[in-house]
Design goal:
- The structure is a homodimer of 306-residue chains.
- With 306 residues, the first copy, chain A, is α/β, with parallel strands linked by helices.
- Chain A contains eight helices and twelve strands.
- The longest helix of chain A is centred in the N-terminal third of the chain and has 42 residues, at 2-43.
- Chains A and B meet through helix 1, helix 2, strand 5 and strand 8 of A and helix 1, helix 2, strand 5, helix 5 and strand 8 of B.
């Protein structure tokens, strides 16, 4: 009796093992397929599937902080070109969420269509800047940045790990920049190229602390830093619900200082990019396009989006 | 006797199956790992391994044509920024080979270091433009483009499937553009945004043939097209070993026509991008940087590459 039991057991055991292994393989295969799709769709080559690229992104509660890049944008000839090269960069940043805020009364068709095909997880907002604020000497994109901060405060909680960065649409970003800023605990800073009338501006660091600013323009600013030169942990944005970019009394070039002094002090800044000795982002500016030969009336036989 | 044989067979069979399956899984896992590395290294996040990113790229004899993008470049404040965003785009194009040609007497350290870390298969060349050709009214980058054509003729044969494209370093490229040009049999053309004083220029197509040019500038040019608006099959470059960009008597804006009339006719052009109705590349231009506050002597305590 005992011998029959053992022989049955040993005949059944391997078959049970086979079934377990085969089930295990099937799970692995589908996860491999998902991984491949993930990269392919990020690379923009795969037929797009229903991924979390809509306007209601999944909440990420994992340990890796999501980088929330806030990009104000407005209608102009180079807009789609600028967004195209930005998306080409952002598509390669893992755990990334792009908050695109249009200066308009509505979602424009161009930006909506663009984002739907960009292959970058995103949220599409719009905030119109009143005409009285659109003058020379007035800081720009204030309403759009504040709109994005409002969205974060409404849709994210302290349980979401995240880092907030203001990514204007004409700058140039290296991929390394995003890995540097991802470890931001409170507020981090780094050099910015081609800004302030110099090859670069940077925080001066001694013993791991920011002690001053290397800049060619108004070194007396409390935080002599460009919008592209700092990132803020999402926690800090949520803990300071009234921290916003100032419209009243604000001067161009003081936006960064006005905002940062609401949430941090110079002593508490965390230097990134090898103690602020590497330029990983450049304040490039795109030339205004010459449209001198653009016909007054539509001459072409088709309408072409540019 | 027979029963003993069967029972042994049925006991051994499943164990043999288990061994086969386990070996199979191991092979799959390592291939999965390789796939992941491939994408990660393309995304520039993985520790770099010895990939074909050196100056002696592997010859590709497969069916998928390699896109050879020829980028002339020269030392200036925005150079590294421009190359950074170009690499961010090109990194996502499969079967791609970047031919970067510096206008200098030697490989500059900045470009060499940049290419070594860019994660894009490349060849690094340099050709110096004599000072007498560096004047307003003279076409630019002639020597560099010809240098790259010479390299292709010396290092590629008719057995290599390829498509040659002139990718200036300040333009903006969508990923779709490269998939459009990849099927170029002889010479293909498409619209270019923000050029010729208009929102876009494009070849006018009727019944699949180019019959004219929609342009705001010198519509009498034989090929009224920007450098970013065409691609040439590698075969055509090799079949016409003397086809080059003209230096003597050349005028700016006529470079494209001078080159194209050596290798094709308007009737033979292959329209891409939905019969030339989509803008997939933009002739963006980056503003010259204001370095008005750059100190005459080095003031910072460290040297920082920008």
């Amino acid at each position: 009796m005992k011998s029959v039991f053992y022989s049955r057991f040993f005949i059944l055991l391997p078959w049970v093992l086979i079934v377990i292994i085969v089930i295990d393989i099937d799970t692995k295969r589908s996860s491999v397929r998902n991984t491949a799709n993930f990269y392919l769709s990020r690379l923009g080559n795969a037929p797009r599937r229903d991924r979390v690229v809509g306007t209601s992104p999944a909440v990420n509660r994992t340990a890796t902080p999501v980088i929330y890049a806030i990009t104000p944008t407005y209608t102009r000839a180079v807009q789609k070109a600028e967004l195209t090269r930005l998306a080409n960069t952002f598509r390669q940043v893992p755990h990334f969420h792009w908050i695109v805020v249009e200066d308009s009364n509505t979602h424009t068709e161009l930006v909506s269509r663009f984002l739907a095909r960009a292959g970058v997880p995103h949220t599409h907002l719009h905030v119109f800047t009143p005409r009285r604020f659109k003058r020379a000497g007035m800081p720009r994109a204030t309403e759009q940045r504040n709109g994005a901060l409002g969205w974060l405060r409404a849709h994210r909680t302290s349980r979401d790990a995240g880092v907030v960065f203001f990514a204007d649409d004409d700058n140039t970003y290296s991929l390394e920049l995003f890995e540097e800023m991802r470890s931001t605990r409170r507020v981090s800073v780094w050099p910015v190229g081609l800004v302030g009338g110099r090859r670069y501006e940077r925080p001066i660091v001694e013993n791991g602390k920011v002690v001053g600013w290397y800049t060619g323009w108004r070194a007396d600013r409390p935080f002599a830093i460009d919008m592209a030169g700092f990132a803020v942990n999402l926690k800090v944005v949520l803990e300071n619900p009234r921290a916003l970019f100032k419209r009243r009394g604000a001067k161009p070039g003081m936006q960064e200082s006005d905002f940062l002094k609401q949430i941090t002090t110079v002593e508490d800044l965390e230097p990134k990019a090898h103690n602020c000795t590497q330029v990983l982002v450049w304040h490039t500016r795109t030339e205004k396009v010459n449209l001198g030969s653009e016909p007054k009336r539509h001459l072409d036989s088709v309408f072409i989006e540019v």
